[in-house]
Amino acid sequence: MNQEKDAELVQHLAKQGVDDKMVMGHPASLFVLFFTEMWERFSYYGMRALLTVFLITEIAKGGWGWTNAEAMNLYAWYTGLVYLTPLIGGMIADKLTGYRKAIILGALIMTLGHASMALETFNQNYFYVGLVLMILGNGLFKPNISSMVGQLYPDKSAKKDAGYTIFYMGINSGAFLGMLLCGYIGEKEGWHYGFGLAGIFMFFGMIQFYFAQKIFGIIGEKPGTEHKPGDNLVSVQEEDHTPANIVRDRLIVVAVLMVASIFFFFAFEQAGGSMTIFAKDYTQRVLSGNSGEIFKWVDAALTIFPIAIVTYVLFKLSQKIVAKYPLTVVFTAISFAIIWALGIWKVYREFNLDQTEVTVSWFQILNSFFIITLASSFSKLWEKVWNPSGPVKFAFGLLLVAVGFVVLAYGSMSIPQGAKTASVSMVWLILAYFFHTTGELCLSPVGLSYVSKLSPKKFAGLLFGLWFTASAIANFIAGKTGSYIDYIVQNYSMTTFFMIIAALPAIAAIFLLLFNGKLKKMMHGIN
Fold it and tell me: TM segments (predicted)?
């Protein structure tokens, strides 16, 4: 297959009026979505990295002084609703606005949400208003940008899973930078600065997408949009004549994968909850001497190298689209200039401190860093080496996230029953995030791809909304489970807490492997 010009892909793009310029073997339009989603995830994860630690930090240090249980309950409701509203947002886009307008409106609402949260020092109500705006804006944004990615590729294209994996790298690039910079600035300089910084980059994401809309041809337009005679454009929503029994079977498979994803994200989303509490209260974060110096160099590398990698992706995209979409390139370049300035400032500041204290939010960047470094390898694995069925990929994802919690359980064995604090080595959290990331790469981008491939096109937004509804359920359960961490540690042990979380995804993985053959048949040729 020609990396630069895949004939089937080019023909598919032409039918929808999409620019056929390629970047690294994929449509340039994919990378516009990449950067839009990157800045949205910067804003979401930058704020999420601060949410729990802000709530449980003492009032004297600018936090709200909540108990772990209180913070976990708010975390459960917030993250649950963030992933529930995409169900409504998907329907709104399918029936009324189209994907593009929904994305822009959602981005604007989230920008206002971050601005409101930055004002929490004046009145606590601004914080709650900001959370509500974030929930509503995400509902319009999240399912519809994922739908647009899927429509760039033919359903049976070998590049579709790879395209979603690249898109997923964009998601995690934004998450990485958001947690790295918003988390650092929030904990070191002031919580409201961290919340405000997240909003600035949400605004940049909205602007760069707005000025590049024409690159998508008719993808994402408002339903019923008319075109001039002779345009010879064919909406992907008008191509679907699949027999009803096949549609039914495929939707059953989608439903099974959605249920499986609940078990995965129930465990995975402990990152912003119980794992944050573990990092704050039970992990050795103050480093001195050689360990402090080594961390400074590692942290500097983790700061600079990912920014450099994503800057290279921007450069490659700019070469292809700057002539037609100069404002998109200009605004994205400005946002990257700010990122470089903040990254260099952070590194300089840390090297001039006598004692190194690792921020609580720093551990959350590990997931995104591993995604950025491993995503292309998984993309090539699925495309060229080994491409098992979706249920098998999901099973591996579930098993790997379970292994991550087994590692934490083992590392927690030295913590006495009922202990409120401890100084466990950072190594256990680092290893856990590594296994969680490899599991995520087996499940999450693959899940997005299968929802796109198996769903009727006219209901794509709705089905992506349902996919995120499964994540909503998982996030709610994750937060509620995290609220019992103090109770379980007091009455049993930290090891028991983590083993309970490990057991559930492992059981789900076994069931997927047992029913893999049946599920493959029900996909009717889509793999």
Answer: 45-63, 75-93, 102-119, 125-141, 162-186, 192-212, 251-268, 294-315, 327-348, 360-382, 394-413, 425-447, 459-477, 497-515
Print the SS3 string covering 137-176.
Answer: HHHHHHHHHHHHHHHCCCCCCCHHHHHHHHHHHHHHHHHH
Instruction: Identify the three-state secondary structure at position 424.
Output: strand
Give me the residue label for tokens 């099973």: 395
Do the Cβ atoms of 22 and 5 come closer than 8 Å? yes
SS3 26: strand
180: which 2 tokens? 């790295």
Per-residue CA distances from 129 to 133, 275, 282 (Å): 6, 26, 32
26: phi > 0 → left, psi -120 to 50 → alpha, else beta; which? Answer: beta
Per-residue pLDDT of the chain (527 residues; tens, 9 = 90+): 344 567 888 888 998 899 888 998 899 999 999 999 999 999 999 998 899 999 999 888 889 999 999 999 999 999 999 989 988 888 898 889 999 999 999 999 999 999 999 898 889 999 999 999 999 999 999 888 888 888 898 877 778 877 877 887 888 889 989 999 999 999 999 998 999 999 999 999 999 999 999 999 999 888 767 666 555 565 555 576 788 899 999 999 999 999 999 999 999 999 989 999 999 999 999 998 899 999 999 999 999 988 998 899 999 999 999 999 999 999 999 999 999 999 999 999 999 988 899 999 999 999 888 887 887 788 788 778 888 898 999 999 999 999 999 999 999 999 999 999 999 999 999 999 999 999 999 998 888 888 888 888 777 767 877 888 899 999 999 999 999 999 999 999 999 999 999 999 999 999 999 999 999 999 988 87
Q: Fill in the amino acid letter for 123.
A: N
Q: Do 135 and 207 touch, CB atoms closer than 8 A?
A: no
Quote the CA–CA distance of 108 and 103 in Å, as a whole number.
9
Question: Is 292 exposed, middle or buried, given 0-12, 13-18 or 19+ CB atoms closer than 10 A?
Answer: middle
Q: By C-alpha distance, which of 449, 431, 518 is closest to 261?
A: 449
| Amino acid identity for residue 482 in this structure | G
DSSP secondary structure code for residue 492 in this structure? S
| Distance between CA atoms of residues 367 and 131, nearest Å | 24
Rounded-to-integer distance, Cα 474 and Cα 262, Å: 5
Q: What is the DSSP string of 276-336?
A: HHHHHHSB--EE-HHHHHHHHHHHHHHHHHHHHHHHHHHHHHHHHHTTT-HHHHHHHHHHH
User: CA-to-CA distance for 211 and 340, rounded, in angstroms?
Assistant: 23
Q: How far apart are CA 64 and CA 233, in angstroms?
A: 55
* Nearest-angstrom CA–CA distance, 100 and 217: 11
What span, in angstroms and rounded, lies between the C-alpha atoms of 99 and 461? 8
Residues 6+ apart with CB under 8 A from 377: none
